[in-house]
Every structure is written in structure tokens, then in C-alpha cells.
Amino acid sequence: MASVSRLVDEDASSSTHGAAPQDAFPALQGLERIALSPHRLSDAVFDILAGAIATRQLPPGTRLALPALSAELGVSRMPVRDALLRLEQIGLVELAANRFSRVTPSTRRSSELSVRFACDLTGSTLRFIVPELSSAQRRHLVEDVVAIEEALGSRRITEVLASYSASIERLADLAEGTPYGAALSHMRFALMRDMFAFRVASPLPPDLGAIFESLRSAIQDGEGESAAAAVQALQSVLTPGDDITDNDLRSR
Predict the structure, then answer these.
(1) Burial status of residue 120 (CB atoms within 10 A of its CB: 0-12, 13-18, 19 or more)
(2) CA nearest neighbour of 34 among 26, 25, 43
(3) Alpha helices (runs of H) in 135-246, residue ranges in sequence order
(4) pLDDT (tens digit, 0 to 9) for every residue of the chain, 252 residues total?
């Protein structure tokens, strides 16, 4: 993923919602120019911006300028506008017509719900697809599980979410053409953004090793129900961070 610098003025939250910012948007830095066929441009812009928001490279309250984004990425405004509309649909930005776009915050409530929904959605997808997978596909999923367990050992939320995001991508591909695959693809970045506000639990649950062993065995044996149950047991691995606010920008 391309690196992204902080985009806008340092006091974004002080501007009123209905007024255009007083200062000019500074130029963006660090975004790689995109060289793709036109029909794929909006997907590429979406992936870059959504990934930057999900990992807080673009923090809550950051204001986004369409002309600056277009210039930095080396694309026309149309794919950037399309990407911003998609980001609005999944709650990562809010748009003010003819003024500016702003990265939305995570609230404590939204983060807690995202962790719960991520486990529900992952578990439901495994319940559906695991019995139908080939042995090679199951082996790849087990490798993803091992990567997540190892990342938890580091206690770094960035590593945990990177490994979990990779597993979601694989699940979305395996469930392509189903409501599960569509939901995973559509919501992946929003879930990552909210989950990024969490921390790895300390201490880790004492039965964590047994839970992961159960998950690996269930996938290997094609037991979708058991795999789903194991995922549900992992919710306690993440706990809310101290920096999650209880109010979003609309209440300011």
C-alpha cells in the first residue's frame, strides 16, 4: 500500500460543519501515481484511500480535497469522486457538496459493533464455505489462521489486523458470487478502521491456544459449524483502546 502523509490543516475539527475551510488545502505527498485502465481507476483510488483511513494514516477529522487527491494520484477527478462516494457508503468519509470531504471517526460503540460484526461475518462465511472447499483451499485458510495467531503473539494491533485483513481477502475470494463474499469485500476496510482502535487484550485469554487449535482442526476437517464457533470465541482477544471517543463529528 502506498504511504500517505497527513493531508490537511492541523485543526480540522475546529471548522464548522457547514462552512468551507478557510485555508487552502496543502498538496498531498506520498501517494503513488496510478497507471491503470480507466475502468479500474476508481477501484485503485478506493483501495489506497480506504487503506490509509483504516490504518489511521489519514486520521479522523482529516479533510480531503478532490483537486489535490486527483493531482497527487495522477488521475482525473472522476475516479477520485467515485472512490469518495464509495467511502461514504461504508461510513469512512462524509461529503459536503462543493466544500470538502472529511474522514469520519471511530466511536467506542461503532468499534465494539465492528469487532462483533467481524466475528459474526467471518464465522458465518466459514460455516458456509468450509465444507465445500478443496484440501488445498483449506490448507491456505489454516495458514491464515496460523499467521493471525503469530501476530497476536506480537501484541501489535497493526500486525494482527494485517493478517486478519489478508484472511478476509481470501475468504471474500472463496465466497465470491455469494452474499458473504460481497459483504466481506464491501465492508473490509470499514471493519479494519474500527478494529484498529482496539488493542490486543492483556493478558491474552488462557485458552487462546486451544481456540486456535480448534479452529485449525475444524477447517482441516471441513467442519463449518465448529469453525464458526471457534471464531466467535476469539472476540475477547481485542479490547477497546483508551483513545476511542464516545462522540462523532456530528455532535461537535
Answers:
(1) middle
(2) 43
(3) 135-154, 157-174, 179-195, 208-220, 224-232
(4) 433 333 333 233 333 333 333 333 443 444 454 554 455 788 889 988 998 888 888 888 888 888 888 887 888 889 999 999 999 998 899 987 666 789 998 888 888 888 899 999 999 999 999 999 999 999 999 999 999 999 998 888 889 989 998 999 999 999 999 999 999 988 888 888 888 888 888 888 899 999 999 999 999 999 999 999 999 999 888 887 765 554 433 332
Main-chain phi, psi angles of 94, to 5 degrees: -120, 140
- Give exposure, 36-67, as e/b (b: 16+ Cβ within 10 Å): eeeeebbebbbebbbbbbbbebbebbbbbbee
**In this structure, is the dihedral angle defined by the CA atoms of residues 196, 198, 204 and 209, taken in order, positive or negative?**
negative
Q: What's the one-letter identity of residue 192?
A: M
Residue 7 contacts residue 25 (beta carbons within 8 Å)? yes
**What pTM does this model have?**
0.73
Collapse the DSSP code of 136 into the 3-class scheme (helix H, G, I; strand E, B; otherwise coil) and give the result. helix
Closest residue by Cα to residue 123 from 237, 236, 225: 225
Q: Residue 170 corresponds to which cell in the numbers above?
A: 481470501
Shortest CA distance to 192 belongs to which of 57, 66, 102?
57
C-alpha cell at 64: 480531503
Residue type, 226: S
Contacts of 169 (CB under 8 A, 6+ apart): 188
